[in-house]
Amino acid sequence: VLRLFVFLVTSLAAWYLGYFAAAHVPQNAISIEALQEIGKKPVLRAPAPKRQKCDHWSPCPAGNFAYRILSGGGKQRKAKICFEDEQLITEWNDDTGSGINVAIVNYKTGKLRSTNFFEMWGRDQSNEMINFIRNAPEGSLILMATHDDGSTRLKNDAKNLIEELGSKEIKNIKFRSSWVFIAAKGFKLPDDIQKEKINHSDQTKNRYKGWPAEIQIEG
């Protein structure tokens, strides 16, 4: 009799609790999926990296300018010059072409003064480039990059001028060499930045038929 009484009381209590839950707990409050999620460990996801100026991996320190200079590669890949996240020379720029591409920037403001390119194969524009650089005001940054051939009609006067700006490779430039360079006019650049790079054409190693791989410097 006692066992029957305990069974009836237990059944009645279970029924009451079930009725109470059904009446007061929302239908979608608890699900099997929700109970399974409780036991899972949280998944930690790294935040998406913030894009830096000129696609640098790390932010530029305060009081500095960001730059990236990329030479052309083959016939199709033209030179590119980025300064403070502004594309000064790109494949869509009218002042971009074969030969030596030059961008002149105001060092105090970081603003573009002018850009141009000088053909060194089909036309002789060595003297025009000399005048373009000489006309740059004091306090200018001069950023240079080749596309296709920048050496065949490059005269010694132009090489001497670029060497005076700090180039150590301009007199070594050869047919279709990839070359990039950053220089200062009227002041001195920091010693710890990369200023120049060159890559010569080599038929056994060229990335493109007749052309070496494009190269770049950044800082």
TrEMBL record:
Pfam annotation, one family: ILEI
PROSITE patterns for the chain: GG_LECTIN
UniProt keyword annotations, A-Z: Disulfide bond, Lectin, Secreted, Signal
Signal sequence range: 1-22
Transmembrane segments: none
Record bears the keyword Signal: yes
Cellular compartments annotated: Secreted
A molecular function GO annotation: carbohydrate binding
Organism encoding this protein: Lamprotornis superbus
Protein name: Protein FAM3B
Entry similarity comment: Belongs to the FAM3 family.
Occurrences of domain ILEI/PANDER (ranges): 98-186
Taxonomic classification: Eukaryota, Metazoa, Chordata, Craniata, Vertebrata
Gene Ontology CC: extracellular region
